[in-house]
Amino acid sequence: MNGVSIFTVDQAKLTSLALLGTACLTCSKIPDELKRCPVCKAVSYCSDTCQIGDFESHFMTCSMLTVVSMLLPLEDRQYIFEKRRVPYDLEIDISLICQGNIRTMQMALPKVGGELTSIHCDLVNYKPRCAVCLCSADDKRALEGPEYPHLLHCSECRAAFACSEDHRAQYLNEHCQQLERNESFTECEMNKRAFEDSLEIVTRGWTLSETLWFPMRHKSEYAPLPPSWAEWFADPSNLCPPDSSAALNRVRTKQLSIPMTVLYGMEHFDGAAGDLPLLSSRTELEIAVVGASDFELRFGGLTVFEEILHCLPSLRRLTLRFIGPGVVRKLVGSDGEDRETLEWVPCAFCKEKGVEILHTIHPELFHNHAEECIAKAATGDGPAFRWPDIAVTFNSGMGLAVGMKSEWSPTLEMLAKNGVPTICTSFLEREAEEDDNFLRRHHCNVVFRFHKNPWRSEAVAKMLYTRKGFFSYNNFVQGFRGWSDSSYFPRWDVRNFLARDSRDEYYG
Questions:
Q1: Which ranges of the sequence are coiled-coil (predicted)?
Q2: Residue 427 sits in which domain range?
Q3: What's this model's pTM, rounded to 2 decimal places?
Q4: Residue 460, SS3?
Q5: Backbone angles phi, psi at 289, to 5 degrees
């Protein structure tokens, strides 16, 4: 869902409006009149110079987009867009069409000497669609004839579309006046912000020096977090770079959301700690990033977690365990050589203070990792397994699991049984609700209920396949520690777990 060019390795190339065809694909300028590609009709240019300059790059993409736009048979389009009626959810059909088109491109491109990129995927997934009926211009041409020109777009944000004047009038009030859910902006205003953020990235280029920023200072004493990003950036002690802009700061919050969300969760757990040692006053802290993904490693990494060292004066050593089947060990560096995914060059203050960050990467499910470590310790083949001081699952989607076969179930049971404070974040409110239900079905003791995370990423992205809506990284947050029912016995069959002599031997 969050595979958008401005948030991936291609993020320095295209703005949100360039992907939608309402800004120049080459330079992102918005002149009075754009020149649309006459073949694929998906992208636009501000001048002949930009179009000619992009010809070689666009040629293969253009042919692929043209082919996949014709794959859906006419009778299927008629069934989806003419015979289907509300309350049937067209979004399911749209997602299946897009996924099928991307699979086709993935198979076809290597045969003609190309490869699938995130830009290909974005041009398919974010193809403009009518906000009322979800028809694309390709759908309208197939249903009504090739003379159909193109969708109408909002003149203000250029990122909302309608297939006719009737549908534009029908959607206008909702688009321009009704606030987005849980936001203080309308959809039109959110679209404008999304373009500003992506334009900032394209203009500056996505580099560590520009966007991966954190304040270089160590706090002399622990201070509770301020209530918002606005106050955090305004704090003189944070020494925000003088060339910062509001858009650039919003972009920076995507990485900074990682340590700030961890610190925020720690404050909640410390507030409910009772007689337990406070997390914020420890000299050593071990964090398990459970279900870790490429994002935490590629665009977060150890450098971002350094902010936790900066904010906790007593902390001398921070140990990070990145655990999940989606993590990778190596990347190809700019020199073509393999390098560690996670690199940390301590800032001058950390070096002077002598603090350190240690890390390990475990490309496996958390409960499998714990089981293996515990088994090795029992036979003397490894050290005693230590449960983390705190765990965090970033945007895991654990509540989307169906039935009783979720791989998250034994992981939750292990964390709850051993009283590990665990932070859970999600992209959307409905995902947060599903996660909350999932935790409660496992009798996890919820310490703080899901709510809008004040330390979420302020760089928003538009939802795929939907009429409207946005998501952001770590948008909602909640946390649990221990079990709410001490008599609860798990019903989950974790391979040969229940066959062992002792559950406590397994859980430590």
A1: none
A2: 257-484
A3: 0.86
A4: coil
A5: -90, 100
